[in-house]
Write the structure tokens for this entry.
Amino acid sequence: MNVKETPGFKIASLTRLKRQLMDLYLSEFGLSRTQWQVLIWLQILGNPSYQQDILKNIDIDAAHLTRVLEQLEDAQYITRTRVESNRRLLAINTTTKGKKIIATVEDIIEKETKILFAGFSSDEKKQFTSLLNRIEQNVLQALAQDKN
């Protein structure tokens, strides 16, 4: 078997290349890979968001996320405030400046998507996305079974 031709290897390789492309496009804005990923997750999760919710969706540890959130706060992209009902919990909100940079990241993600799907028909895009969703569900199911 040629490992380089297996779906898992191809997905990992594509992920690496996609990250390189996004890093290239976002370098002019001074955002690291982790910073723009956190900003996108904040957009997805909405205001307020919480550190543990971000951690569920991004592949870094809590200490690294804390450092990234500090950097984003220093850049005035987010604010963090203690939650009155649970003083250990920090509510994370995007600022107006943060929303502007998130819009820029979203524009770049749209540009990336156009590159990824260049030459694909509308039906091929839908089918590919559907197949990826099925693969994701297969992996989630396997993870759930292995936890039991």
User: Anything to note?
Assistant: The beta strands are 49-50, 78-83, 86-94. The longest strand covers residues 86-94. The chain has a mean pLDDT of 91. Helices lie at 7-26, 33-45, 51-55, 62-74, 96-116, 122-147.
